[in-house]
Amino acid sequence: EISLQHGAHRLGRRNDADMARWRAYGLGQFIHWGLYSIPGGEWNGKIYNGAAEWIRTWKEVSPQAYDSLIYRFNPIKFNPDSWAAVAGRMGVKYVTITTKHHDGFCLWPSKYTNFTVAHSPYKKDIIGPLVKAYNKQGIDVILYFSIMDWHNPDWRYDIKTRDDSIAFNRFKQFTRNQLLELLTRYPTAKGLWFDGTWDNSWVKQAAFADSLETEMRKLRPGLIIGSRFRADEYGKRHFDSNGNLMGDYEQGWERKIPEKIEDVHGNDWDCVMTIPENQWGYAKTWSGHIKTADELLEMLAKCVSLDGNFVLNFGPKPDGTLRTEEQTLAKAIGDWMTVNKEAIYNGEYAGFAKQDWGYFIKNTGTNKTYMVIFNVPVSGLLRVTTPLHTVINKAYDLGNLTQTYTPEEIGTSTYFIHLHQQTPKKPFVIVLETGETG
Ligand SMILES: C[C@@H]1N[C@@H](C#Cc2ccccc2)[C@H](O)[C@@H]1O
Which of 91, 94, 108, 237 could form a disulfide with 127 if both were Cys (CB 3.0 to 4.6 A apart)? Predict the structure, then answer.
């Protein structure tokens, strides 16, 4: 181990109540909404092949023309209660909302810049009503904040000259001011989801970022900050130069999911996922593979089975409504969660050997382990290998408690569950109530 001033300040998982609440969420919603939602991935009739929220960087787009979109931001159909109702029906426990994406446009009336909703035709704060509406549905809020800010003239990709350094010092104060402003304006926010922290300019700010993280945690005890916020003094991000996780959970799983428990190194983590291959902000034309409800449910079960949270992204339209495809998926996921949510909430790694039919999820603090089944073998036999000294006392369908099973013991800690009849063409859950022997 080397001596670090600005590496991880805690080894292992946080063990406080705020983090336990985050750990139990299972399912979250991401919302990407801002000026980029207006062009929706198109400019002058041409389709941008990148992610819609990055259209400002397209060579076909002049930054000034993009920034003038502020004068067209007027989501007259925006109704946060309807978004929160869709999220509540879907079964999400938390939402991560973009307060400011890389383009620098603020969805709250920040005092530190005019590039905000306050200077758009809409005029009103978006974040406050969103936080209130989601909290009213019992859904916690995490604020997404991009450090990289293309609009701010003091932003730099690297610090090469004294002028760069003077400008970036102004930028650091601006960033600190905005973050303290967000935490003060929205005190019920449970955490900050940082992005846009990969450029050298920010990576070189280990001391400043470390001090700012400490200041934010002091201002808001229990605040949850992920591994993407800051680098250590050697420029190492997410994991410091000693290989220890920085922040409270790993934020490296963007549009990807770990394969096995060893990949998560005993840390908390979240996977943030798009419905199309790679569109976060609203894109008029979705191209390529659009994930189905069953695919998304399998991603959810896989994440929770490996001790993570699954956060599905929505990109609302410029008028403030949700696109039909997203509403349809939210309902399909919600219909499944209505029956099976106890397999997801308070879920953790079960320690059972992974099987091809699906995923094991243990319920924190109880003797229940859930089999979330996606791939029924033609034999109709579901193999279960329990951890040593664990026995199965009861087995039954979560969706039909009278549908019970008598596991056939076929070897040490190994059983077959015989499925009774042709099973539904939908993911389903069998509950195992276990006990310990010896
Ligand atoms: C959560 C997601 N992170 C952002 C990004 C990115 C990115 C940028 C460059 C290379 C790879 C990924 C996306 O715009 C979205 O906000």
Answer: 108
pLDDT band at 402 (very low <50, low <70, confident <90, very high): very high
Burial of residue 191, with CB atoms counted within 10 A of its CB: 0-12 exposed, 13-18 middle, 19 or more buried: buried
Tokens of residue 381, six digits: 């036999």
Give the integer Cα–Cα distance in Å for 54 and 281: 9
Which ligand 1 atom is at minimum distance from the Cα of 280?
15
The neighbouring-strand residues paired with 270 are 309
Residues with CB under 6 A from ligand 1: 32, 51, 53-54, 195, 254, 272, 280
User: Which conformational region is residue 288 in: left (phi greater than 0), alpha (psi within -120 to 50 degrees), or beta?
Assistant: left
* 101 Cα nearest atom in ligand 1: 16
Region of 91 (left: φ > 0; alpha: ψ -120 to 50; beta: rest) is left
The residue nearest atom 11 of ligand 1, judged by CA position, is 254
So what's the pLDDT on residue 311? 98
- For residue 201, give the nearest of 152, 266, 136 by alpha carbon: 152
Instruction: Looking at 306-404, list the stretches that DSSP marks H as alpha helix, in order from N- to C-terminal side.
Output: 324-340
* 304's tokens: 């929770």
Q: Which residue, by CA, sits nearest to atom 12 of ligand 1?
A: 254
Nearest to 37 by CA among 88, 107, 84, 95: 107
The pLDDT tens digits of the residues spanning 375-393 come to 999 999 999 999 999 999 9
Helical spans, DSSP H, in 68-224: 80-90, 127-136, 162-185, 200-203, 206-219
Contact 137, 334 (CB under 8 A): no
Complete edge-to-edge strand list for the sheet that includes strand 191-195: 224-225, 191-195, 140-146, 94-100, 27-31, 308-314, 269-273, 250-254
Among residues 107, 136, 132, 138, which one has the least CA distance to residue 120?
A: 107
Task: In whole angstroms, give the CA distance from residue 79 to residue 85.
Answer: 10
- The per-residue pLDDT of the chain, averaged, comes to 97
Angle between helix 127-136 and helix 80-90 axes, rounded to 10 deg:
40
Whole-number CA gyration radius for the chain: 23
CA dihedral 386→391→395→398, nearest 10 degrees, is: -60
Residue 438: the pLDDT is 72
* pLDDT for 144: 99
* pLDDT value at residue 336: 98
Q: What is the pLDDT of residues 108-163, one digit of tens each?
A: 999 999 999 999 999 999 999 999 999 999 999 999 999 999 999 999 999 999 99
Phi, psi of 6 (to 5 degrees): -130, 40
